[in-house]
Amino acid sequence: MHASAILGPAAVLALWSLLVMLLMVVTRLNAFKAAGITFGNTPAGARYADVEADMPAKVNWISHNYSHLVEQPTIFYAVIAILAIAGGATQVNIMLAWAYTVLRILHSIWQITANLIPVRVSLFTLSSVCLLALAINAVRLTVF
Questions:
Q1: Does the predicted TM-score (pTM) go above 0.85?
Q2: Which of these, 27, 30, 33, lies nearest to 60 by C-alpha position?
Q3: What counts of helices (H) and strands (E) characterise the chain?
Q4: What secondary structure does DSSP assign to 44-64, as a single string?
């Protein structure tokens, strides 16, 4: 199996993260406009957290999901790079990487739309199990 085969899921998740970021920016700007918030009337150093309580829940859901996409997936990207470099692009690891990516995208869609916690936790847990297996395989390949 060619090493680049395991990079596909990471590339897809990176693109998905950027699409969610774009959605976040668009929805935030629209919410700011509706709330009368402009660049001219915000104090220096203001952050989104300063107005988050005044924003619609669905706008915050997208923002929170974007944060989630730049948290745990950073470990995924590192593990995928390790596996690609160290010759760990096995069929099992590629399937685990795709499973992780698909589950994270489903997690995003769910959080952005319905955001019911039990489903989100299930998707997060399943994706975390995939990531744990990938990390264990990376350690086995590089340490032992």
A1: yes
A2: 27
A3: 5, 0
A4: TT--GGGTGGGS-HHHHHHHH
